[in-house]
Design goal:
349 residues; 2 domains; 7 helices; 21 strands
């Protein structure tokens, strides 16, 4: 059993800080808190993949006609940043150097990721241009995205893309990502409202039970089954104590986990603010790979009064959570499709 309220007493100030710290799943991609300038200009780059080394390279050539950030001094100090979405938390970001006082910076720099092609085909490349402010907040200058599921990797020519305003919310952006079949999960959940201690009923002592039964049709890697395992966290708590996981099963696209996870310390009001994030991973010697996941919540977009990107449950996920809330003590079961999720920030293991 994991005590969910560890690190998150919702009524306290420290609890609110806890919510804020994980309010963005991929904060620098999704945050809307940036200085506003008119987006303009282009970015030129080429893409290549070296099969033998499993290297994905983005060769950033230059940008042209960027916006002026400081009109008085006509100054812009631009750099380029890359993300692979939805798994930016695992693969990380890359940056070019900063070019000083120019609206037409030339970089001729490579941003490299070591990643398998099968995995790369599930990602979207985001290239964004930023003004580097040494004394304040960096300023967003524009972005472009490349759907790698349909990209012709035989094309190593230099491409020129117009920069576009950023998409404000992760949930809006993921609606436009390519269709991604990552299998399905059979699970059951139940809520026990209060736990007795002797003859006394303790307040806020409810338990959430999550029974992971199995997954089916997980995607293959190089034609072979994966080594899957499952992680669980109930947001907004991302502390190490709040993270649970199953054992790793070997070489199967249809793993049977039959694993139950218990989280205690829940009042009924907490269920409206919490989100169960379940993610399925492929264990790999080099880097564990996120296959897909789901989120059980009311999908309100906020938690304890703070706007968060991870309260983005689908209608089917919301329906399961609501049925559990309305039927205390009963196991509520469903089969849900796994989808793209950008996992919430967690502390290093």
């Amino acid at each position: 059993s994991t005590h969910w309220r560890n690190g998150h007493p919702p009524s306290s100030n420290s609890g609110m800080a806890s919510v804020s710290s994980v309010s963005g799943s991929v904060l620098s991609v999704c945050s809307t808190d940036f200085t506003s300038v008119e987006v303009q200009g282009t970015i030129q780059f080429s893409i290549s993949y070296v099969e033998r080394l499993r290297e994905f390279n983005i060769f950033v050539v230059q940008c042209q006609n960027l916006a002026i950030v400081d009109p008085k001094r006509r100054r812009t100090d631009p750099y380029v940043k890359s993300y692979l979405v939805p798994d930016s938390a695992n693969l990380g970001k890359r940056k070019t150097s900063v070019k000083k006082r120019t609206l037409n910076p030339t970089y001729k720099e490579s941003l490299m990721y070591r990643v398998q092609m099968e995995y790369l085909r599930t990602e979207v490349l985001y290239l964004s241009v930023w003004h580097n402010d040494m004394f304040g907040r960096n300023c967003f200058l524009g972005q472009t995205e490349v759907d790698l599921s349909t990209w012709d990797f035989g094309n190593t020519d230099i491409n020129s893309f117009f920069l576009k305003p950023r998409v404000l919310y992760c949930s809006q952006r993921t609606q436009h990502l390519p269709a991604y079949n990552s299998g399905e999960m059979r699970l059951a959940v139940r809520y026990l409202p209060q736990v007795s201690h002797g003859e006394r009923m303790l307040p806020n002592s409810g338990e959430v039970h999550i029974w992971i039964k199995n997954c089916k049709n997980l995607p293959l890697v190089k034609g072979a089954p994966v080594d899957p395992y499952l992680k669980c966290v109930i947001l907004p708590d991302t502390s190490k104590k709040g993270r649970q996981k199953t054992r790793v099963l070997k070489k199967t696209a249809n793993p049977v986990f039959n694993h139950t996870m218990v989280y205690d310390g829940f009042g009924e009001e907490d269920l409206k603010e919490a989100c169960v994030e379940l993610t399925v991973w492929d264990q790999n010697r080099l880097a564990n790979r996120l296959i897909g996941g789901l989120r059980l919540s009311l999908g309100t977009g906020s938690s304890y009064g703070v706007s968060v990107t991870w309260m983005d449950s689908t209608a089917q996920e919301v329906a399961l959570w609501e049925r559990m809330m309305n039927s205390p003590h009963e196991w509520i079961e469903d089969v849900l499709p796994l989808r793209r999720v950008a996992t919430a920030k967690t502390k290093r293991k």
